[in-house]
Amino acid sequence: MDDKRYLTFALAKGRLADKTLSLMEEIGITCEEMKDKNTRKLIFVNEELKLKFFLSKGPDVPTYVEYGAADIGVVGKDTLMEEGRRAYEVLDLGFGKCRMCVCGPEKSKVLLQTKERIRVATKYPVVAKDYFYNEKHQTVDIIKLNGSVELGPIVGLSDVIVDIVETGSTLKENGLQVLEEICPLSARMIVNQVSMQMEGKRINDIINKMKACL
Ligand code: PRP
Q1: 48-72 mean pLDDT
Q2: pTM of this prediction?
Q3: Class assignment of domain 7-96+186-213?
């Protein structure tokens, strides 16, 4: 058994990683080093189980998995839709639940109904383009932002935004609302396609144990 190769996990930094680590603990996969909030280490190893873990920015998780630098990744469905990387999506982890929505001030509602050429600010240009062009058949100008997207309609940059809504507090506190819902979102587990062929048994064992816990 000593010649087992390491299986590597890429986890999206933040809340999803914390929840994933708790779920892993439930199935007996622990990584004590990773719990140290002050560490500057980037990669953590469980020698006994031959597992490695690293944390990265969410949008980089599907990249590591597509190229095989990680065998398994845990990331939000929003990121998977936006990045469009090749990997098997094997499990809906059920946490990190939120919705991808078109949001804006009430007065923008009519611009969606009449299919005006509007400005859409978003961190998710691929998702926004797909929704407006392929689903709604509405021509729009998409403006990429990197965060605090709610500012778009407030400062007059855009008519609406496409963004994730979890509790709805950010919208509410800024006088905005959900105008249309695009799709529900949650954390997903993804697997590199070659790893699934080569290490299918170990990976499926992890997937099945996680399923049983959900
Ligand atoms: C996300 C999202 C919204 C907010 C929604 O932003 O872009 O702004 O959370 O959550 P709520 O419905 O519970 O208020 P995030 O905190 O990731 O920061 P960012 O906008 O700077 O990317």
Answers
A1: 96
A2: 0.93
A3: alpha beta
Q: Sketch the domain layout of the chain as residue ranges.
A: 7-96+186-213, 98-184
Hey, is 154 helix, strand or coil? helix
Residues 78-98 have a mean pLDDT of: 97
CA of 170 to the centre of ligand 1 (A): 7
Ligand 1 binding pocket includes 142 (Cβ within 6 Å): no
Q: Ligand 1 atom closest to Cα of 170? A: 14
CB distance 163 to ligand 1 below 6 Å: yes
The side-by-side arrangement of strands in the sheet containing 177-185 is 140-144, 118-122, 160-165, 98-104, 177-185
pLDDT tens per residue, range 125-137:
999 999 999 999 9
CA 172 to ligand 1: nearest atom: 14
CATH fold of 98-184: D-Maltodextrin-Binding Protein; domain 2 (3.40.190)
